[in-house]
Amino acid sequence: MSLRHIDETRVTRFIVRSFAEDFVADTHLDVAVVGAGPSGITATRLLAEAGYQVAVFERSLYVGGGMWGGGMLFPRIVIQEEAAHLIKEVGVNVQVAGEGYCVADSVECVSKCAAAAIDAGARIWVGMLVEDVMIDEDARVCGVVLNWGAVQRAQMHVDPLAVSARLVIDATGHEADVLHTIQRKVAGAQFDTPTGQIVGESSMNATDAEGHIVELTKEVYPGVIVAGMAANAAAGAPRMGAIFGGMFLSGQKAAQLAITRLADE
Ligand code: 48F
After folding, report:
1. Which three-class secondary structure state does DSSP give residue 62?
2. Is the CB of residue 67 below 6 angstroms from any atom belonging to ligand 1?
3. 264 C-alpha to ligand 1 centroid (Å)
């Protein structure tokens, strides 16, 4: 069997049209998630499963954030037993390692978590950087300002586009990038953190870091819930290395907070 003759311009039209339809549909979101690491992808899936219009914007060309590379490029992650259900329910094979620890293949985990979020109805936009936020007249964040990740890398001056969102989840990992942007740009911005400011993460202490991450997952600025490593970084709490239970539980809490918040509006 031979494949049909290809009209190259049709390929172009199909791609651009399909992209444009989906992107236009995502210009008004219930929740814009920034960063497609474990916490962001988990929050995205749970919000989509709950019926919300949610999309995640990821500046890299790949999803998974720090999960893809496992621990120091060994493609495995460790998860505490109490959090393992959040990846088992999307079909990840989780091996019990003993003493309350489990192990999973990092590539399998990223792929299945991302596929489940898409199957639940969310869109994952890769190569899109959130370079800023929109702020309304009540000083509340009401959307994200987007550019191509490649534009940032090339240091080109290209004006961005904007997408509105009833809530934003900062799941940008160690950088807490959305919150740092707000701190830099909004004069006198105060955050719900121990110092009122965005501090940056401290050195590794896995027990402390994992112990605090769920509690630190909250709406730290009007309209912005922080999740994952960004929650610790915002508060000045420690990092933890390749142990991921807190990331999944934090993503789950961010989704639950968002659902409660949106129901109140
Ligand atoms: O860092 P990342 O995986 O965040 P996480 O969900 O998980 C942290 C763990 O991977 C690991 C750890 C485990 O114990 O500590 O590090 O908290 O994923 C964050 C994602 O956000 C993207 C970034 O490329 C990464 O994929 N990102 C960061 N800033 C932006 C962004 C931005 N401004 N716009 C879009 N994406």
Report:
1. coil
2. yes
3. 29
Q: Which residues contact 40 (CB under 8 A, 6 or more apart)?
A: 33, 34, 56, 58, 65, 169, 171, 227, 228, 251
Partners of 238 in beta bridges: 202
**Of 45, 56, 59, which is best to mutate to test ligand 1, by the most ligand atoms within 8 angstroms of its C-beta?**
59
Q: E-assigned strands of the chain?
A: 28-34, 54-58, 76-80, 95-98, 101-105, 123-126, 128-135, 141-148, 161-170, 219-221, 224-226
Q: How far is CA 140 from CA 29, 89, 123, 223, in A?
A: 15, 35, 24, 6
- Residue 17 belongs to some domain of the structure: no
Q: What tens digit of pLDDT does each residue of 102-129 get? A: 999 999 999 999 999 999 999 999 999 9
Within a domain: residue 76?
no
What is the token pair recorded at 102? 């489990």
First to last CA, the chain: 57
Ligand 1 in reach of 239 Cβ (< 6 A): yes
Domain of 246, CATH number, reads 3.50.50.60
CA distance linking residue 33 with residue 50, whole number of Å = 15
pLDDT tens digit string along 209-234? Answer: 999 999 999 999 999 999 999 999 99
Give 172-201 as a DSSP string: -GGG-HHHHHHHHHSTT---SSTTSS----
- Asked whether 257 and 218 are in contact (CB, 8 A), the reply is yes
In a domain, 7, yes or no: no
Residue 230, both tokens = 């960004």
Query: Is 254 inside a domain boundary?
Result: yes
Domain that holds residue 136: 28-65+106-264
**pTM for this one?**
0.98
Domains in the chain, number: 1
